Structures
1.
Amino acid sequence: MNSYFPEGELRKCPADIEEAEEYIISGATAEAVCIICTGEHDLIVDLGFMKGRIKRSEGAIGIDEGTTRDIALISRVNKTVCFKITGFTTDETGSRIALLSRRLAQLECLENYIKKLRCGDIIDAKVTHMEQFGAFVDIGCGIPSLIPIDLISVSRISHPSDRFTIGENIKAVVKCTDENKITLSHKELLGTWLENAENFSIGETVTGIVRSIESYGIFVELRPNLAGLAELKPDISVGSTVSVYIKAIIPEKMKIKLIIVDKFESQAKEKPPAFDYYITSGSIESWKYSVEGSDKLIMSDFCPR
């Protein structure tokens, strides 16, 4: 069982100085909230019974080498950080403070967990930030990994925020490993075409999200791994929430024909719809989205184990 979690999920912190000394002896990893990033990029952590300091060089793997930028430290303010307690000292006011190392916690996680991951392994992750090209996630002790936007779901999206929210806990599958770098995928966990289509019936009217508008029709997402094609209709835009009538479901062609009934306006960006995982643990060697016999083949193969 994995004992290394994304930051904010461990929820362990010594309650007093005596327990902190036990953490030093045992080498256990603790967590607490970072309250300040100093001008020298040291992190000040609130342990409750005293403050702790993570020197810049101990803030993350790669800081001294220049492979990790200082923004990785600055962005931790008001967020939970993990660390090892390495000792005690006094600050400039004479107050006793704990010496902490986030780097050591990350190194342990890297050696004991991340380096042992193999392609196809299903893991826990937490969304930390998003760019146009993909979602960055914490896969353990603040160590980042990327889910490229085209691997988030079969139904195409314009930005990862169409699918995720910052701080969300998700499942992911290891797509490939390259030394210490892990790339993840997500779509394989969201079900095949048939698994998703089984949630709908001809004649139903359901809610969907417009994902693209083409000259021949409008693609409406019914689930993250399932979209149908609706007839063109004026005043519809990408991102609109619509109600659609299901006109036909054609498994052999992997097609769902829709008619847009109504459009719903929202004043602010809504939280992305929830999704269901069809696989939540273990490992997968390959995954086939397509229906057997369909001319369109969508599948994933993972690295040989």
2.
Amino acid sequence: MKDNLSDNIMKSGTSILGIVCKEGIVIAGDRRSTAGNLVMSKRSKKVININDYIVVAGTGVASDIDLSQRVFGAELKLKELKTKIRPSVREAASLFGMMTYRNIRTPSMIPSIVGMLVGGVNDDGVTELYTVEPAGGVYPVDDYDANFSSGMPFVLGLLERQWKKDMTIQQGVDLAVEALKSSTQRDVGSGNGIDVFTITKDGVNHVVSQEIIPTYS
């Protein structure tokens, strides 16, 4: 008999993406969570600011994303209190990678499945973007990435064609919105809303918060 347990778990199939721009980083995601072929939530925000200098976007099992983000924020704060130094973006991404690596290797009936984009700005004003894949590997991103989100094939196809090395933050925001809208047209795990954050030397800003509402005649 086929085990349908995985079909009953709320998942963030999702489209997330990160774009490296001339002045900083753009991170974006949609708002849909599913269980099997059922849309369970239209308000699941996959992109959140962990603190005033780190933004993360997650894909995978919705409960794992939520717990991982909260624990990640707490661990970063503890690290800062212990060392009296604000962790760098690279240190933050490495911390999350270690958490992910440990979680998937802890015996469990339902393994933790989370992929994450981690972007932020360091004390010196330098911005960085990292992708943490579901097995715990941490990789710097110098152009763009969509991790292992279900919308990845649609997102990367557009970014491959339209991303430019010296694009401005506003161009990055416009491209992120276009990529997400393209993905939601084809990926059943993506939709219902768009959130876009920018990260520059001046800090973190939530620049797009858009609900996608169906219209009926």
3.
Amino acid sequence: METQNPQLSDELLSLASDIREHLSCLHELGIDTVEPTNATRPTIESDAAYPEKASQNLPPRRTQSAAVPTLAVSAKVPKQTISPAKTVQTEPSTLFGELTAKSQKLEQTTETFEEIWTDVGDCTRCPLHQGRTNIVHTEGNRRARLMFIGEAPGADEDAQARPFVGRAGQLLTKIIEAIGSKRDEVLIGNVNRCRPPGNRPPTEEEATMCKPFLLREIASVQPEVIVVMGNTATRNLLNAKLGITKLRGEFQDYHGVKVMPTFHPAYLLRDPSKKQETWQDLKKVRDYLETTGKSNS
């Protein structure tokens, strides 16, 4: 029987251990599949380099390179060869960086609200202007950390040219006070500035005409958190495909700004059972703002 080479066996076991370690790491990163690729393993030195072992009559070690499989990532990152752990040169943060989509941070502008509203003008960009009494602009603290966005003005808002002053607005004021703020400390606005007939949701065309002015206001103020209320506001700000019942309660992202989707106050008036869920959503907003603790002055 031939004498087994213990050093060769140890190297094979080490290689197997390295492969298992990489497979475990890739699995944790969400990479489910790997592809074999042929690579040349570095040449193993012959026993001539080990004179102390020459007298042991061991089988000569091969000097030719042995083809061994290595692993290539083929999941959520561009294909690249992953070598055994001892020879990996890339820092772990590089791999994480490739797997994590970078959010484009909202760039602050120097526009004033008055400049934005001048561009709105006596707007006739969509059919909603035909039935409106007033254009309803965003209202509140222009250095606010917190902003609330609804879908469009109602009858009371259209009459007073102020957002959220009707029954839904009164409920919103109570919600704001419940999380330890005052109405004049936050910013309140809508996707659309003109009242749709019968308080229906704005159409996609109507929202498309008006939304850019809201986005300019957001870029000017750069609030830390935005609360979007209802399906229409959530869909328009986040380009969301899911409904409010699926998205509410979890922070979303708008160019680096945290966004909390929740129910619209008008919906809470129709279905008071949703107030508890809304309260849970707003407590998360309150806790986040208290944790960051930036000054509003």
